[in-house]
């Protein structure tokens, strides 16, 4: 396979390149940040992208770049490596291309070279390789609908739980009423509370928040 590697640590990056080369794969690009990864993929059109989650542009910049690449080309196989689980971005990645050709491995779980290369090849062939901890975190997220909310939406819901009106929430967050209305609608959508749901949606949203907090 032709592989593009993105990893900000030069030693780790060179090690990955060496391993892939030893197993007869061609590394067409080896870069150290997310913007360079996007440019390299556009230029080289690899068969697979292997990227670290955390790079200089931000704590999840490599994973965000992977999501962007998959949205542009859902058939592009992507394997991400990480020290920790980033469940929100991981879920976004899995939602691209029907989840095929995706891998997410924690670095300390890559126990041997042969297993690592096998995971690379499985993803490159359209398979899915997920670390067990990633699976566990995603299952917990799907069980808790509040976990779907963005940080700003959680702030809005927190203030709603304190009894604030939309106008009072806007004043507390120093944003416009329109912005708060948009966030509230998004909260209702993500908590599966359509307009015709029985009961007061605002109360039901706050109940969901209390269950999550408890």
From TrEMBL:
Keywords (A to Z) from UniProt = DNA-binding, Phosphoprotein, Transcription, Transcription regulation
Against CDD domains, the record matches this protein to: LuxR_C_like, REC_NarL-like
Instruction: Look up the record and give one Gene Ontology term from the biological process aspect.
Output: phosphorelay signal transduction system
PROSITE patterns registered for this protein in UniProt: HTH_LUXR_2 (PS50043), RESPONSE_REGULATORY (PS50110)
> What Pfam families has UniProt attached to this entry?
GerE, Response_reg
List, for all copies, the residue spans of the domain called Response regulatory: 2-122
Q: Where in the numbering of this chain does the HTH luxR-type domain appear? A: 142-212
Q: Which InterPro entries match?
A: CheY-like_superfamily, NreC/VraR/RcsB-like_REC, Sig_transdc_resp-reg_receiver, Tscrpt_reg_LuxR_C, WalR-like
The family database entries (SUPFAM superfamilies) matched by this protein are listed as: CheY-like (SSF52172)
Q: Which GO terms describe its molecular function?
A: DNA binding
Q: Does the keyword NADP apply?
A: no
- Kindly list the positions at which 4-aspartylphosphate occurs in this protein: 52
Protein name according to UniProt? DNA-binding NarL/FixJ family response regulator
Q: Which organism is it from?
A: Pseudonocardia alni
């Amino acid at each position: 396979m032709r592989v593009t590697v993105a990893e900000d640590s030069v030693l780790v990056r060179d090690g990955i390149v060496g391993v892939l080369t030893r197993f007869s794969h061609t590394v067409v690009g080896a870069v150290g940040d997310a913007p360079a990864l996007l440019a390299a993929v556009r230029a080289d059109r690899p068969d697979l992208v292997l990227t670290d989650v955390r790079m200089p542009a931000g704590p999840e910049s490599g994973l965000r770049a992977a999501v962007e690449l998959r949205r542009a080309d859902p058939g592009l196989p992507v394997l991400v490596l990480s020290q920790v689980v980033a469940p929100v971005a991981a879920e976004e990645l899995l939602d691209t291309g029907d989840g095929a050709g995706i891998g997410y491995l924690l670095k300390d779980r890559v126990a041997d070279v042969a297993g690592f290369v096998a995971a690379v090849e499985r993803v490159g062939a359209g398979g899915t390789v997920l670390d067990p901890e990633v699976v566990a975190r995603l299952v917990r997220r799907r069980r808790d609908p509040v976990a779907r909310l963005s940080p700003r939406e959680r702030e809005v819901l927190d203030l709603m739980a304190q009894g604030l009106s939309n106008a009072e929430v806007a004043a507390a967050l120093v944003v416009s009423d329109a912005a708060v209305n948009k966030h509230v609608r998004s909260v209702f959508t993500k908590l599966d509370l359509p307009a015709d749901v029985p009961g007061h949606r605002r109360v039901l949203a706050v109940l969901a928040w209390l269950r999550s907090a408890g």
